[in-house]
Amino acid sequence: MRRTQAPIDLNALQAFLAVCETGSMTGAAKQLGVSQSAVSQAIATLERDQGVTLFDRESRPPRPNLAGRALLELAGPLLEHAQMVSTRIGDASNAGTLPVRLGCVDSFAATVGPELIRAVSGSARQIALWSGLTPGLSKQLHDRELDLAVCTQTTLNDARIVEVPIFSEAFVVVVSKGWLAERRNVVDWRTLALELPLIRYTARSVIGQQIERYARHLGINSPRRYEFDATDPLLSLVAARLGFAISTPLCLWQARHYLADIAVLPLPAGRLGRRDFFLLHRQGEWDAFGQEIVALTRRVIDAAIRPALGLALPQLGEDAIL
Fold first, then answer.
1. Are 129 and 104 within 8 A, CB to CB?
2. Phi/psi of residue 174, nearest 5 degrees
3. What's the pLDDT tens digit per position in 204-226?
4. pLDDT band at 109 (very low <50, low <70, confident <90, very high)
5. How many Å is the Cα radius of gyration of the chain?
6. Which residue in 197, 146, 188, 138 sits closest to 163, CA to CA?
């Protein structure tokens, strides 16, 4: 009969990980702030409880053997999960219930975010909302500073992260209504690219990178003159007839006080011409609530945002938000 191993002691696991990282019992003791004998005893206890040896004792410095390498691969996630549990218990104790930390890209937080909070506030669930850029949100999710994140690009190469598609939106050309009204002939994006400079989102943002790839694909080679992190200053220059921009319906709704002064023109369809939104969360964590967020988001878009955009910008096509 196979021997049943004892549950892994987390302090012993931390000692094992420290030895692997520092290459010695002495280094591990310094890293953990304990004695070398305490580290040696923790490793010996871990090996005894699991019924295996974890290091090749003949090598100097000690290197993990096959069993040790298998444990090393799992040690980080195990300790990380234990830290998350401790943190969340503290959060629950302070708040009276377990809060959900949701991070969103700015355009989503400013448009869908308020309706999500309103919908969730009627339940026992508490929600804390963060906004930011996709790379920062992805890192916060990876570091367990967030429970779920709504991003526009999947940047994590981590099998533990679940990526749930929510919706996509088409890139559109944005131009001043006044500038367009002065042209008697029909104007399309090719004419704009020849007559006006492209006002860009900065390359620090995912949307800026995506639009730049799409513009190159379309052959738009406008000099880099105006670049912004946010939609508001970008649209202020468009409304002032200083250039044209490429943006998305959700970004336009975020800065909707400019909608009376701008018009939109379609761009060629294709995968490069769309921005996708994903809900990211760790596998086995917040699955039900993640599905609730996806369903709520779809309802907000279908019942509120799409109809309002259709009234304000009738030039938008039916595939503007899918």
1. yes
2. -120, 130
3. 888 999 999 999 999 988 888 88
4. confident
5. 26
6. 138
Instruction: Kindly tell me if the per-residue pLDDT of 88 is higher than 60.
Output: no
**Averaged over 235-262, what is the pLDDT?**
92
| Chain segment 15-37, per-residue pLDDT in tens | 888 888 888 888 888 888 888 88
Q: For residues 245 and 31, give the distance between their C-alpha atoms in angstroms, rounded to a whole number.
A: 53
d(CA 195, CA 215): 15
Q: Is a pLDDT exceeding 50 seen at residue 96?
A: no
Is 132 in a helix, a strand, or coil?
A: strand
Give the residues across from 99 on adjacent strands: 126
Domains recognised in the chain with CATH numbers: 10-83 (1.10.10.10), 92-162+277-305 (3.40.190.10), 170-274 (3.40.190.10)
Six token digits for residue 183: 């042209």
CB 147 within 8 Å of CB 101: yes
One-letter amino acid of 49: D
Say how many CA atoms lie within 13 Å of 159 toward its Cβ.
Answer: 1
Q: Write the CB contacts of 94 (distance below 8 Å, at least 6 apart in sequence).
A: none
Which of 93, 71, 89, 102 has its CA nearest to residue 8?
Answer: 71
What's the CA gap between 256 and 150, in Å, rounded? 21
Helices (H), the chain: 10-22, 25-32, 36-50, 66-95, 106-111, 113-121, 134-142, 177-181, 189-195, 206-218, 231-239, 249-254, 287-300, 306-312
Could you tell me whether strands 198-201 and 226-228 are parallel, antiparallel, or unpaired per DSSP bridges? parallel
The DSSP call for residue 321 is B
Q: Specify the pTM.
A: 0.67
User: Roughly how many angstroms between the first and final C-alpha of the chain, as a whole number?
Assistant: 57
